[in-house]
Design brief:
With 981 residues, this protein is mainly alpha-helical. 61% of the residues lie in helices and 4% in strands.
Length: 981
């Protein structure tokens, strides 16, 4: 090995760069870019003869190769087995698919969905809120004949006795109809003392019993279940639970209605004359398309319902089947709705009656969304009968159940809200005026006003904001508390534009009443809504006053501890409308308001909300000390919440917010003030690596900006400043927990120090990086699994040795002492087993030594004298460089010899090609020893037949190019660089 001696080739870097330049051509298209196709069509209309229309479409070239794309899939129609199965299912949907569809809560909302606008809130969204709000701890009861264990499978029904004459048709019909209403003694049982949970469970069992009876072809049993369920709606023994009971029972009725409708559809499809296969009616079919047999079945159902003797079950069950009227006569359900709305007048209890009307409106808006004649009737009937709540019967019921009037009236809200929503949907302001007039004349109470404000468009309410404040002030004292009305009014006004001349008057009128509230819950429910109105329409003084009033109400007895969610919502609503943070933090009461969040977790969330808004809406740099100090305080709260148990995701989120804030603070040319801010930030946020990293980058950027200002010619003041920046970074980097981050930042900071002619600081950074290499862990956690750190270390070392080329030597430390120190560390570093990383680094060092051997280096740092200028191609310097290179070659050859076993043949060949590539591109091949070394390595790479032919080909082409250019040594070496095929 001693026979091989390193001789670098003299290089002309400028000539090499120019020879690598490739001619470029401008392209007008890209294979991945959407293609614009212009299609010219002639308009066929006589009026437009001679005119053409141009249509541009965009075609994705990638989609053209996709056989499943929408444009091409039609070619394969019928060949996809999954598609065929789906088509078969749609044509032959049976009982199983129908029973599955019963579990879809929105199935009853398909009809009319194209007519109702997005502002119409469907019933499915209201149900969960009703069930959650209207609960009870009282014991409930169910009267039924289908849940008792002994009677679940057999139901006692009346049959004809032997004494009856041979049945005539009329007798049979009469007997069958009696089965729907009458049960023998003991067949109907009342289940008592049910808890709310048990009651809901029993109702679900009834629903399943109905489905099971239907699928078992027990149609009468299913109807009887529906009748018995609807009878439960006449029971007001536990009034507070009635709205939830209505939701549960009507779900069963909806299921029954869908079953009957689907049954009639099947009947119509199988009854079509002359059809060889089932053909389902279209969604918008007319009664003329329905066969007579299906119509007869439909009539039979309505005859059964008409025979129900009690009003409430007859009304509910017919309403559930309302859609089936389309089989008899298209549009007949409109007459049925009118009739049923008049039938509801026979219900004596006002609560039961309003929910019956609610169900009629709910079914009607789905079946006949364009028909609205029954809705005003239902609403006016409610207004007319509302005084019944003051009657003796209702008062006695309330007294027996120990219910107060306000609580009783809240039970009307879901039903009344729905009726008014149906009435107000797509309505004009004229209808609102008429409704208000009727309300003032007959029913000026809080319940009605609240429902009107909830139902009509918010803009209509905002246009009459003063009128509603007066109505709220003058409405009857009984009923809903007025603070609920103020809250509802506020909800309308914050989403609409209140007329400018009414804004302040409305706020004064409302807040005059709200400020008197003593109950903290009532007060904060209004304040949470009206703060958005104040921020939206009022100025700094009003916002500050509003916040001060909230603090005044929430501070006594630490009441704020019970209302953290509402207070947090207030902060979010302020930030949603107020993006001027200079104004926000100048408010005297804002930070005291934030201080009310005493629970650490809640306070951290509030601080995060503020910083998120700041990072999102603060688009320009800031230097306002008030804002900076406030944000520093909030950031410190978040930072101090971090402990050993804090999740990494939480740390990342907080670090991201603080980094965004730090980037936005800019003091312009006042670099010293900027550095002071970074020093303060480091003391505040020292436990977050992400923040420390951004601070180091910011300080480096500050040093670079300083250099730009002085154009690289530092004065004593600016030189001292950039040295201070370097000192800041040098002190901060060891605080980082990640060794990888430390290594990268040491290198970066050293490069910035050299750029500013801070030689001793640059040396210090590089020395610290070299001393840190042995501490690099063998693995690191990434993508939820452990990964080797060797690729990262290799990339770092490649960049590091390239930087050391232009780093001037300290005259007191010897030739390329930093590179020597790095090589010594790498020699002792424990690499992974079977790793060639150290040799790969040596190949890069050989390239650096080759560049260092040149009279002029290929790159320099501006105004920094590198070793080519300092040593001036001194022979002693060159001999030191050559000695280092020879030592590396000896290490490389020794390593190649150590892996010359057959099992390492492929690994050895790959590594030899790396070394050969480095020698070919950097060494003087006119020297016999180098040429012989390359030839021997080439032969060794081919020895086991494991070398990558593509790499061999590239190296051979490189040698040919150099030989053709007349580079010394390549012509003689080229015949030895053969490739065995």
């Amino acid at each position: 090995m001693a026979a091989y001696e390193w001789f670098p080739r003299p290089r002309n870097y400028a000539l090499e760069i120019s020879s690598l330049e490739v001619a470029t051509t401008v392209t007008t298209s890209h294979p991945l870019k959407a293609i614009t196709v212009t299609e010219v069509k002639k308009v066929g209309d006589k009026k437009d003869v001679g005119k053409t229309t141009t249509q541009q479409t965009f075609v994705d070239p990638l989609s053209m190769s996709d056989p499943l794309s929408s444009g091409i899939s039609t070619q394969f129609e019928g060949t996809d087995p999954l598609s065929m199965m789906m088509k078969g299912d749609s044509l032959n949907s049976g009982k199983a698919s129908r029973s599955d569809s019963l579990k879809n809560p929105k199935l009853d909302e398909i009809d009319g969905s194209d007519i109702l606008s997005d502002t119409f809130e469907p019933w499915s969204l209201k149900k969960s809120g009703i069930l959650a709000k209207y609960t009870t701890s009282e014991k409930l009861s169910i009267t039924t004949s289908f849940l008792s264990p002994s009677d679940q499978e057999k139901v006692v029904i009346k049959t004809q006795t032997q004494s009856q004459p041979t049945g005539t048709v009329s007798d049979k019909v009469k007997n069958r109809l009696e089965q729907l209403d009458d049960f023998e003694e003991g067949s109907v049982k009342e289940m008592l003392n049910l808890s709310q949970q048990d009651y809901v469970k029993r109702i679900d069992e009834l629903n399943q019993a109905l489905i099971n009876a239907w699928e078992s072809d027990h149609r009468v049993k299913a109807l009887k279940i529906a009748i018995q369920c609807s009878k439960l709606l006449a029971d007001v023994s536990v009034i507070p639970f009635y709205p939830s009971k209505f939701v549960l029972i009507t779900d069963i009725l909806d299921t029954f209605g869908r079953l009957v409708y689907d049954r009639l559809l099947d009947k119509a499809q199988t009854s079509l004359p002359g059809s060889s296969r089932p053909h389902r009616l279209a969604a918008n079919f007319t009664s003329d398309e329905v066969p007579e047999a299906a119509k007869e079945t439909c009539r039979n159902w309505f005859f059964k319902i008409a025979s129900i003797r009690e009003l409430i079950p007859r009304l509910y069950v017919e309403a559930a089947l309302l859609k089936s009227y389309n089989f008899l006569n298209t549009g007949e359900y409109t007459d049925a709705l009118k009739r049923l709305s008049l039938m509801a007048r026979g219900i004596g209890d006002p609560l039961v009656a309003v929910y019956a009307r609610c169900y009629l409106c709910r079914v009607g808006i789905l079946v006949a969304p364009k028909f609205r004649d029954h809705i005003p009737v239902c609403f006016e009937d409610f207004i007319t009968t509302f005084p019944q709540v003051q009657g003796d019967i209702v008062q006695n019921i309330m007294a027996m159940q120990k219910l107060e009037m306000p609580q009783y009236l809240t039970l009307f809200s879901p039903a009344l809200d729905w009726i008014l929503q149906c009435l107000a949907h797509s309505a004009s302001e004229k209808l609102l005026n008429q409704t208000l007039d009727k309300c003032k004349e007959q029913c000026n109470n809080a319940l009605m006003i609240n429902s009107i404000m909830s139902a009509f468009q918010p803009q209509y309410i905002a246009n009459r904001a003063l009128i509603f404040t007066e109505m709220i002030r003058d409405c009857e004292g009984t009923g809903l508390p007025k603070h609920l009305l103020h809250r509802t009014l506020g909800l309308c006004l914050v989403v609409a534009e209140t007329p400018e001349d009414q804004r302040l008057a409305v706020l004064n009128e409302v807040w005059k009443a709200v400020v008197k509230l003593k109950n903290g819950s009532d007060y904060i429910s209004c304040a949470e809504v009206w703060i958005e109105y104040v921020v939206k329409y009022c100025g700094k003084r009003e916002i500050n006053t509003f916040l001060g009033d909230i603090i005044k109400h929430m501070t006594p007895d630490r009441a704020y501890e019970d209302f953290y969610p509402q207070l947090q919502s207030i902060v979010c609503k302020i930030l949603a409308h107020q993006h001027d943070f200079s104004l926000l933090f100048s408010l005297e009461k804002f930070l005291p308001f934030v201080d009310m969040f005493q629970r650490e977790s809640i306070k951290v969330e509030v601080c995060k909300c503020i910083l998120e808004s700041f990072n999102k809406h603060q688009t320009t740099p800031i230097n306002d000390p008030v804002v900076i100090n406030a944000m520093m305080f909030l950031g410190k709260v978040m930072h101090d919440s971090i402990d050993a148990l804090t999740l990494d995701d939480e740390k990342r989120a907080i670090g991201y917010l603080l980094c965004g804030f730090i980037r936005l603070v800019q003091f312009g040319r006042d670099f010293e003030q900027q550095l002071s801010f970074y020093v303060e930030s480091r003391s505040y946020f020292s436990n977050l690596d992400a923040v420390l990293v951004i601070l180091i980058h910011s300080v480096n950027n500050l040093a670079v900006e300083t250099r730009k200002v002085v154009k690289g010619n530092h004065s004593s003041k600016t030189a001292a400043f950039v040295r201070a920046c370097a000192a800041y970074c040098f002190i901060t980097i060891p605080s980082l927990q990640s060794v990888f981050s430390q290594l990268q930042l040491y290198l970066l900071c050293g490069q910035v120090a050299l750029l500013n002619q801070c030689y001793s600081q640059g040396d210090a950074f590089f020395k610290a990086a070299i001393s840190l290499v042995p501490e690099v862990p063998k693995t690191f956690d990434g993508d939820s699994k452990s990964r080797s750190s060797e690729p990262f270390l290799l990339e770092f070392l490649y960049n590091f040795v390239a930087t050391l080329l232009v780093t001037p030597d300290n005259p007191e430390m010897g030739v390329m002492y930093l590179l020597r120190g790095l090589l010594n560390v790498l020699q002792d570093y424990t690499w992974e087993p079977n790793s060639d990383a150290r040799i790969l680094v040596y190949t890069r060092v050989l390239a650096v030594l080759s560049a260092a051997f040149q009279e002029e280096f290929p790159y320099h740092i501006d105004k920094v004298d590198s070793n080519d200028s300092m040593y001036g191609h001194d022979p002693k310097f060159l001999s030191e460089v050559k000695l280092m290179a020879n030592t590396l070659i000896a290490e490389i050859l020794s390593h190649l010899k150590s892996i010359s076993t057959p099992e390492n043949a492929k690994r050895q060949s790959s590594l030899i090609l790396e070394v050969t590539s480095a020698l070919l591109t950097t060494c003087d091949l006119s020297q016999t020893s180098i040429a012989t070394l390359i030839a021997n390595l080439w032969g060794l790479a081919l020895k086991n037949g494991q070398a990558d032919v593509k790499v061999l080909k590239k190296l051979q082409d490189y040698a040919k190019t150099k030989a053709a250019s007349g580079v010394s040594g390549f012509q003689a070496l080229l015949p030895k660089l053969t490739i065995n095929t």
